[in-house]
Amino acid sequence: MCDISKEKVFEAISTVIDPEVGFNLVEMGLIYDAIVDEACNVHVIMTLSTQGCPLHQMIKQWVYEAVEKLDGVGTIEVEVVWEPAWNISMADDNVKKALGGM
Amino acid sequence: MFSISKDFAPPLKLIAPFFRLGVIFYLLSMLALLFFEPTFSYQQMDVAGWIHLFLLGFVMMIIFGAMAQLIPVVLEVGHVVVDVYYIILPLLGVGTIVMIFGFWMMPSLLPYGGLLVLVAMIIFAFENIATLKKSTLNNLTVSTVKWSNAYLLLGILTGFSIALGFAGSLNVNISLMLKAHVYAVLGGYVLLTIMGLSLTLIPMFSLAHGFDEKAIQIAFKLVVAGVGTVFAGALLGFEWFMLLGYLITFGGVAFYLWQIYIIAKLTVRKELDVWAKSMIFAFGTLIFSMMTGVVFLLSNSEVMLHTTVWFFLLGFVSSMITGHLYKIVPFLVWFERFAPLVGKEKVPMLHEMYSKEGAAMMFNFTALGVISGGFGLLFESNIMFKAGGSFLFAGAIFLYITMKKMLAYGSEN
Question: Count H helices, E strands: chain B?
Fold first, then answer.
């Protein structure tokens, strides 16, 4: 029985900071979902704030490494999707406020 | 485990010298401005020397360094031969210096400097074209890169012909060739490149999403057609054809500004950092230079032409470049020195990697200098022009210092 929950995956990913804006990927609203199966294999579905992001592969790798630190995790897949496209309404209120969007 | 984007990214040691040298050339060109009077003619050799110091030494040097980094980002493939940038740097740097001496002291040097610059740019253009061929993408920015490189080659070939003409080795109509050269380089390469890159970079840094790109597509087609029309008109000696080309280009710039307005309305980040201020100033001066450009077309006044070129180059082009340096350089340094430490130790944010006060001084002095110098040209006021030159030089010193610190950030680790 796997004891890794979706919340635990999100908590692990929240250690990954976007160096340009200074917020973590979870509060930015960039992590869409984390699917954990019975064997503790984790499939993270995420997006980026821009398609041309030069940190694209690195951010995927940081997410991978953050999830890898969870005890008992199986295989990890990090998938970047562009639909739905990210927008500021997906971010937490503190991010919106700090960026001037509120 | 997947590969990381370092596969595509050129090392900092390859790109940093372009930025370092570009900023030194900027500092020198602002220093040289102090020795000019506002009543010059653009056909004077010393003015041509200054233009080349600024355009080749600063604008082209920085654009080449930025393109080394951004081409893989835009095209989503690695460079075919990224190491050619190690050759381009000395060729462009030495070629520029030889050309400046040619313009200022010894015209017989011009073909030699011109040849070095020609070789640097041919290598750059062909490497870009080879990398473009690898990419499967076919979007607006890719088209922009293709057209801008084609115009760069035309601009360099006409420029080299002029250099041979000056040295007495080739019989060409220098006046007509000069117009074709200036327009191919400024409109065809610099403007198109800035339009293409800004469409990627401005939404990225301002977090603007989901905007319609129709305006920029029209803008791009009009500028390509306008530059081609002016170029052909200049080579054939058809003044009316050139006038038509100017009007088409102006239409293209108007659509470009409309696109920027659409993006600005969707901007999420409201923070007025040095980048945002520089963008506002750049587009403000672009609008002003278009207005003076229209007056020039109607009046054919050389003063209006000088004012237009001043606000376009020192206002729009310069601010676009310097503003983006405060985003691109911290990123490059961070990527090289701090990205490997993510998750292992505390790493700095990009905005922490430069002095806000230094950047603010750079922006304030530069903006004051552009406005004062521009109005000095417009009213042929020596004191305003000299004040403008002094402010620009002070701004350039702050740019140099902040850039030096950014490039050195974390190097002791």
Answer: 15, 0
